[in-house]
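User: Assemble these into one structure.

Assistant: Restating your components, then the assembled model:
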Amino acid sequence: MAETAISHAHDAGHGAHSSTGLSNNKLGMWMFLGSECLLFGGLISTYMLYKGRVNAGPQPNNIFDIPFTSVSSFVLLMSSLTMVLAVSAAQRKDERNMNLWLIVTALLGATFVGGQVYEFTSFYREGLGFTTSLFGSSFYTLTGFHGVHVSVGIIMLMALVGMNRNKRIPGDRAEVVELIGLYWHFVDIVWIVIFTLVYLIPS
Amino acid sequence: MSTATEHPEETEHTEHTEGHEAEHHGLSDKQYIYVALILAALTAIEVSTYYVDFGPFFMPTLFILMTVKFVTVVSYFMHLKFDNKLFTYLFYSGLILAICVYCGFLATFKFFLQKG
């Protein structure tokens, strides 16, 4: 009886472990991130193909505000640091610091998204709409998809903080924080590529 | 009756906790800050290519910096360097597949554009 109870508890918490001894949740997250490479690869290559196709509206080199985007990139990079500090605190069971770093990460992410909204607004005012040119369409699609990913990450971070306060995180809390951290870092590495290929390399 | 039988969740939690501590890997908080500072410095060099003329080294510099930053975040912040190799294979196989497919895709378009 006792063994059955323990076995049930074991299944509830560790049932997500595969025959390799690794967590299925983590395996699933890495597979998801691998597939996301294909999604962003498609969007980046479409942009690379179309960035020179400007029949109307402003050219990429005339519209990009590199100092502003550099600051945004720095903010997102620093959010990766705060995220890894949250994961580290979760592994130490330091709940206070974990919550603190998760909130700081969400705030930095929100700053980045706010910057992107500002950038899109100013580009639109300068004459670059979604259908103005192939460059405009591919640029807004690529950076917009990335912005949506960051926004989803912010929602996950805030949900995590809320669930942690209500003690409603199922299973291993440190692993849940780590999985969301993996997603967040992925969003950061995608921006590392976008920043170089889209903003810094002239068309 | 043992406590473990009465509170199986606690036993499970304790076991998992111990297991996780045994699994705990990666860098210390201080080392993560050093890595972030290195990444910030690399970003500053990247941005400087916009203002300073790097001549023929412009593109190689940007690509090398981008790759170094990418690998650093994946290895240290995402813990791939310290984690099971299977995760590395899963992630990099997706990445390499993406690079190969889209290099082929871009090359094909370039080819047809030249023919046209």
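The two ends of chain B are 82 Å apart (CA to CA).
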